[in-house]
Design brief:
heterodimer, A: four-stranded antiparallel sheet, about 35% helix, B: alpha+beta, 2 domains, four-stranded antiparallel sheet, about 5% strand
Chain lengths: ~220, ~325
């Protein structure tokens, strides 16, 4: 599903921030991406999301070399992925419902065709009573759940979650982790970027460890 | 959706779905300070462009009236000569004019009427008997007729050496040139204002894109393609353009109607008569109002088109 071969990235003329990255993500797998703050976890996520281009190496996504993707294919690939940003990235002027429905709205679907599905998911993540609220009045945990719901609504094949438990209390963090595990069991490949060792101890899964720009897989 | 032990579905799951969840909010914020400022700029530019278009239509209509009034008439002026009888010369010229093909009527302006024409310059109550006042003969042409002036002019000069034939061609040419200049200037002003509107929208779009960069990135990540994003911005700017264009267009129509009202209100004053002679009845008619409406629509269309092009260009740079 995702394969990196000797991938390196540098910003401008600066030093390489990621060096010789090699790993692969299988369908229906679950893994952590970990490392100290500033190690490049978010940068690696952005490479997978095709928001950054590697300066060297091969990035293969869904069986295709991303350096040769045209714009429509890139969009199609992004529709197969769900992403939870560390800072949520909810659109402030839209309600929780509208934010969660966004991936379906950009597909051009009629609102009536997805309303029930979105409401059900919102109720499932505990935001049933907050669907009319705008992000500004939500707590950190509520924003986190809204961001997760938005990532899940399109039933992605690959879910990327950047520090999804960074803004919530340990109890909610554990519940969110359980949610990701269940998604994996339902067929989604999950990558969770975190530096929370306690969280990783709850559920044992392969760890992609980033340090000093290098990555090693700790199975 | 999966069931979890810790994420129990809310008991409210069986509740009926809320009606009207979506507020049809645009995906890029619209009602911002920058958006309102842009709308004001578009309104002002539309107002100026619409006024220019209205002025051009007014000039075109007035020019048509002048040309119509002047080109279906000719005049013969008989200058007084102490060696000749002016009344005989007038009668001879009238007879010759009546014999000319394409002439509908010939009228010798009576002396009293000619004297009256001098009143604005010489005042009333003067005895003009001693003054060598020329006499005028007005020839009304049959519609569509083209009398043989090239032959008639010399023949008239031969019979009545003091006669001067004026077919108003010089006037028509000058008036046409003046009217064409006004129309052309109005057209250029409209073009310049539309260009200014396009530039304002382009800068505003770039500003909006820079301000919405994070939103644009989120839209990309949730699967929106460049076309979708460009359409979102385009619809936003078309809406702003329509609102600004409508405000500017309505203001221009009100201003033109007000000027027309003032012109008719002062129509009895001598200055107003001269103005009316120059600009006609100061009415732009349906064509003028249609031009104003067209300007407003074009401004809105330009706003949409320019924003789309700018967004596509910006997204290409981001890619």
């Amino acid at each position: 599903m995702v394969r990196f071969e000797n991938v390196g990235l540098r910003y401008g003329m600066g030093p390489e921030v990621l060096k010789d990255i090699n790993f692969s993500i299988e369908p229906r797998s679950f893994q952590y991406l970990t490392g100290p703050s500033g190690a490049g976890k978010t940068t690696l996520m952005r490479l997978i999301l095709m928001a950054l281009k590697p300066t060297r190496g091969l990035v293969n996504l869904f069986g295709q070399d991303v350096s040769r993707l045209d714009a429509p294919t890139l969009t199609a690939f992004r529709r197969r992925m769900g992403v939870v940003f560390q800072d949520f990235r909810l659109l402030d002027h839209l309600t929780v419902y509208e934010n969660v429905a966004l991936p379906l709205r950009v597909l051009g679907k009629e609102e009536a065709s997805y309303r029930a599905e979105v409401v059900e998911l919102l109720r499932w993540v505990g935001l049933g009573e907050r669907m009319h609220a705008v992000p500004a009045v939500l707590s950190g945990g509520e924003k986190q759940r809204a961001a997760i719901a938005r990532a899940l609504i399109g039933r992605p094949e690959l879910l990327l979650a950047d520090e999804p438990t960074g803004n919530v209390d340990p109890g909610l963090g554990r519940r969110l982790l359980r949610l990701f595990m269940e998604l994996q069991q339902l067929g989604t490949a999950v990558i969770i970027a975190t530096h929370d060792l306690n969280l990783m101890d709850i559920y044992d899964a392969p760890r992609l460890v980033l340090a000093d720009g290098h990555l090693h897989v700790d199975a | 959706m999966p069931e979890t032990a810790e994420y129990e579905p809310e008991p409210a799951r069986e509740k009926p779905l809320p009606v009207n969840l979506r507020r049809d909010q645009p995906l890029v914020p619209v009602d911002t300070v920058a958006g309102r400022a842009l709308m004001a700029v578009i309104a002002i530019l539309t107002f100026l462009a619409a006024l220019s278009a209205g002025a051009a239509v007014l000039a075109a209509r007035a020019s048509e009236q002048w040309r119509g009034a002047v080109s279906d008439e000719m005049t013969i002026q008989i200058r007084p000569d102490s060696h000749r009888g002016i009344e005989e010369d007038v009668a001879r010229a009238v007879a010759m004019a009546q014999a000319l093909d394409g002439i509908e009527s010939v009228r010798a302006v009576p002396k009293a009427e000619s004297d009256k024409l001098l009143e604005p310059w010489l005042g009333t109550g003067l005895d003009l008997v001693e003054l060598p006042v020329p006499r005028l003969i007005v020839l009304k042409l049959r519609p569509g007729a083209t009398p043989d002036i090239a032959r008639f002019g010399p023949a008239l000069r031969k019979e009545v050496p003091t006669a001067i034939l004026d077919d108003h061609r010089l006037w028509v040419r000058r008036l046409s040139a003046m009217a064409s200049t006004i129309i052309f200037s109005g057209f250029v002003v409209v073009l310049l204002v539309l260009t200014a509107a396009a530039l304002a929208v382009a800068f505003a779009t770039r500003g909006a894109m820079a301000g919405s960069r994070e939103s644009v990135e989120v839209l990309h990540f949730v699967g929106a393609d460049d076309d979708f994003i460009a359409r979102e911005f385009q619809s936003r700017f078309i809406r702003l353009g329509l609102r600004g264009g409508a405000a500017g267009g309505v203001a221009a129509i009100v201003a033109i109607a007000f000027l027309g009202f003032l012109a008719s209100f002062w129509s009895t004053a001598p200055e107003a008569e001269q103005l009316q002679a120059l600009f006609g009845a100061f009415e732009i008619g349906w064509a003028g109002y249609a031009a104003v409406l067209l300007v407003a629509i074009v401004v809105a269309a330009i706003a949409g088109l320019v924003s789309r092009i700018t967004v596509r260009h910006y997204l290409k740079m981001l890619a």
